[in-house]
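Quick one, T. Sequence first:
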Amino acid sequence: MDLGLRGRRALVVGSSSGIGASIVKMLASEGAEVIIHGRSAESAQSVRKDIEGAGGKASVVLARLDDTADIERMANEARAIGDIDILVNCAGAGSSTLRWFDVPLERWHHQIQFSLMYVVQIIRELAPPMRDRGWGRILNVSSGAGFRPSAYGPEYAAAKLGLHTLAVSLSAELGDSGVTVNTLTSGLVLTENTMNTMTKRAAERGFTETGAALEKRVTKEMWPVPLGRAGRLEELAATACFLVSEPAGYITGAALRVDGGSSGFVN
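Structure tokens:
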């Protein structure tokens, strides 16, 4: 299938590692010109090197997402590269190691800024020009934790769930402008951050397995996944690329779960 991404320009916020890096690399492989965002120049440039080594075209913008002035500067730098057709918001890592009353209030503020409020700001910067040009794609990457929160990491679950209502209200606002807004809801995915959290929580429960054996036990006993495994970065990236593609033009205000069935019937 031709996704119609060749010649489009995409900014992927939070793409110097993890899911975002996988998405930005796959967008580049589909012919999009990509802009990598991160906080670390070294990490972002490493992703850029991989993309350009594979024949893609990439630029880098650096910004802190807890600084509104820095977010505005990032938007201006991205626009200076050229019109942004596709915006993917993928930043917002969480940690599920702290229980509800152990989470400091400051951490609530930080997580809501880092997972939700930066999205509001960057959309306000980049969506109006998409509307004026009559074509655009906005995709927010959320988490199944928003649908099935636990006593651990409540601030992350709350912030990520906010992305769902944001997408629905914005899709109504943009209407028939040619700009779609959707949410990709990720389940358990084998990123470095997930592996670290999984290993720590598993050790607390006395699990002694490692590698694939640990993944199998975790997805059965600790974080149940009906498919019996965690997701892979490439599976998330492929879904993201479809949702921002030309053929997905009739999909807006939707939340698509890529979670191995772990969120059940909730959507």
